[in-house]
């Protein structure tokens, strides 16, 4: 029998609304060969907010080629982090597939303006 999931820590609407989640389009990808867990280096266009970099562990589900041109959503106001020698400026959002290494990316179901803030 499975244990019930732990109750998540509550947060406030004010905390949530301080997080900037924006729509962007992946314009370039390459393998992050220095990462311990297989990952891609992504360059994502956020329109007026510029092109930002991210390292994402999404190789189990997506090829580098099929990611180019894809819309994604990402947290854009976290501080940058160095991941395997690569500056990761945004956190691309996805849902891990239980029991696998796959992550399904979150994305708008239609084209939206690049850099549009998720509401």
From TrEMBL:
<keyword id="KW-0820">tRNA-binding</keyword>
<protein>
    <submittedName>
        <fullName>tRNA-binding protein</fullName>
    </submittedName>
</protein>
<dbReference type="InterPro" id="IPR012340">
    <property type="entry name" value="NA-bd_OB-fold"/>
</dbReference>
<dbReference type="InterPro" id="IPR008231">
    <property type="entry name" value="CsaA"/>
</dbReference>
<keyword id="KW-0694">RNA-binding</keyword>
<dbReference type="Pfam" id="PF01588">
    <property type="entry name" value="tRNA_bind"/>
</dbReference>
<feature type="domain" description="TRNA-binding">
    <location>
        <begin position="15"/>
        <end position="119"/>
    </location>
</feature>
<dbReference type="InterPro" id="IPR002547">
    <property type="entry name" value="tRNA-bd_dom"/>
</dbReference>
<dbReference type="InterPro" id="IPR051270">
    <property type="entry name" value="Tyrosine-tRNA_ligase_regulator"/>
</dbReference>
């Amino acid at each position: 029998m499975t244990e019930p999931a732990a109750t998540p820590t509550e947060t406030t609407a004010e905390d949530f609304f301080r997080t900037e989640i924006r729509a962007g389009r992946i314009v370039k990808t390459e393998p992050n060969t220095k990462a311990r867990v297989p990952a891609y280096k992504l360059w994502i266009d956020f329109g007026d907010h510029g092109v930002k970099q991210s390292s994402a562990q999404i190789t189990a589900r997506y090829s580098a080629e099929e990611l180019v041109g894809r819309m994604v959503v990402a947290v854009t106001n976290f501080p940058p982090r160095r991941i395997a020698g690569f500056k990761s400026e945004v956190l691309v959002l996805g849902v891990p597939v239980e029991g696998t290494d796959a992550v399904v990316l979150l994305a708008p179901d239609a084209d939206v303006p690049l850099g549009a803030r998720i509401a």
